[in-house]
Write a structure and sequence with these properties.
Layout lengths: L3 H15 L4 H5 L52 E5 L5 H10 L4 E6 L2 H14 L4 E5 L12 E7 L8 H11 E15 L10 H5 L8 H11 L2 E11 L3 H4 L5 H9 L3 E10 L17
Parallel strand pairs: 1-2, 1-4, 2-3, 4-5
Antiparallel strand pairs: 5-7, 6-7
Helix pairs in contact: 5-7
């Protein structure tokens, strides 16, 4: 399965199913993969605890994240914030608390089921400066230089062409704007078999790339002041691994020094950008 469009359709299908699952089922699998792996025990494998944050709405928390980028994003009152892969709105609602009445938060997601859930949550909360828009984060439905801060939580690893995403983030950020993104990366070579498992792809892992390659893409896109704000190792229990690997393969995996990590990375768009990035469809950097 190497066609980018096929991979995107796979992720869209899986995350539409996830939108209608219980949060406990999402937490018990890898980034919400629809296969529940852990029997009666719930492993909080990827997600961090949002419950103490201002603006937190439990109805919007599906347990799909792998960090808390809003805690590191340096959001100010009045900012325009963009949340990529906004899901049911968890990060968007926390960000809205930070921007206040004078700011604006836009969430972009390509799953209609997720958008419906997010919009229903926003309506219940009575928020008029939070919007959820359908779109592909490789071709964002926004004008250039229009947002102060970009957020994303455990989403970019699912996108086949990460170069396009970071190019789009650079385009829509205002000069001097910045992003804070939580994502899954690898250190060491993941078994080829994992890359062929559909459920694991939609569960964040086989779509992830090497940490150095990830950071290199950010630098190549033109960002500056690239900073790792948080890093943690993700431990996959044997009962999850056994859904995809034989006992011999599990042993090999553990002996190959493969590290799956959640990182939260920050970077800035230069205040002066001489490359004249422009609108989608035109020649751009």
């Amino acid at each position: 399965m190497n066609n980018e469009q096929e991979l995107k359709e796979l992720v869209k299908q899986k995350y539409s199913e996830i939108a209608n699952q219980e949060r406990s089922q999402n937490l018990s699998s890898c980034c919400g993969a629809t296969t529940s792996c852990c029997g009666d025990d719930v492993y909080n494998i990827m997600a961090d605890d949002y419950t103490q944050l201002e603006g937190y709405n439990p109805d919007a928390d599906l347990g799909l994240g792998c960090g808390i980028p809003t805690s590191f994003a340096k959001i100010k009152e009045g900012d325009a914030v963009l949340d990529l892969g906004s899901g049911a709105g968890n990060d968007a609602f926390v960000a809205r608390k930070a921007v206040g009445e004078k700011g604006k938060v836009l969430g972009v997601d390509f799953s209609e089921a997720m958008l419906q859930k997010a919009r229903a949550n926003a309506e219940k909360l009575g928020l008029n400066n939070v919007e959820f828009r359908q779109g592909d984060i490789e071709k964002l439905p926004l004008t250039a230089n229009s947002v102060d801060v970009v957020l994303s939580n455990c989403v970019l690893n699912l996108v086949p062409n990460k170069h396009k995403v970071f190019s789009e983030i650079l385009r829509v950020l205002k000069p001097g704007g910045h992003f804070s993104i939580s994502d899954i990366v690898l250190e060491g070579n993941i078994p080829e078999k994992w890359k062929q498992v559909a459920e694991l792809y939609s569960g964040c892992i086989s779509g992830a790339i090497q940490k150095k390659a990830y950071l290199d893409i950010i630098e190549e896109a033109g960002f500056t002041n690239i900073t790792l704000q948080k890093e943690k190792k993700i431990i996959l229990p044997d009962d999850i691994l056994s859904n995809y690997l034989s006992p011999e393969e599990i042993s090999e995996y553990k002996n190959r020094n493969i590290s799956i990590k959640s990182i939260t990375v920050y970077a800035e768009k230069p205040s002066k950008d001489d490359r004249n990035c422009c609108e989608p469809g035109s020649k751009c950097c």
